[in-house]
Design brief:
- The chain has 2 helices and 6 strands.
- The chain is α+β, with helices and mostly antiparallel strands and 136 residues long.
- Strands 2-3-5-6 form a 4-stranded antiparallel β-sheet, covered by helices on one side.
Length: 136
């Protein structure tokens, strides 16, 4: 694996980990997101948490990752990540709700320097607390 591929892979893994933490009610620093993406992502999750819900995240084993554009300099890199989501929503009383197993796909646009995620598109039936078609 090339150094660029490793760097992209590390950024993707960090994002997935921090996304799980964010959805679980934590406030991870996500300085590797552009300000607009970070703001939109946090605003999308905020109403869910304001109602007292959290998530016990379980994105399954390491998902399938496909990265395109690593060989092209001065152009964004595109990554597709497929995850098996088995997360369990937790209601405001601390009770687990019925988990729905589902696969979902993250489409990420990463800058050429491999240090910022510039765009996120989530495709799934429903991704707690994000809705299908979420884009930032």
């Amino acid at each position: 694996m090339s150094d660029r591929a490793k760097k992209a892979q590390e950024l993707i893994e960090r994002f997935i980990y921090d996304l799980a933490r964010l959805m679980a009610g934590h406030n991870p620093p996500m300085d590797y997101l552009t300000l607009g993406v970070d703001k939109t992502l946090r605003e999308a999750v905020s109403p869910y948490h304001e109602k007292g819900y959290t998530l016990d995240p379980d994105f399954g084993e390491k998902g399938k990752v496909e990265i395109v554009g690593l060989e092209k300099l001065n152009q964004p890199i595109h990554a597709k990540v497929i995850l098996s989501d088995r997360s369990v929503p937790i209601n405001p009383f601390g009770l687990s709700l019925l988990a729905v197993n589902r696969d979902w796909m993250l489409n990420l646009t990463i800058n050429d320097s491999l240090n910022k995620i510039e765009q996120i598109n989530i495709e799934a039936n429903d991704v707690y607390p994000l809705q299908a078609g979420f884009q930032a």
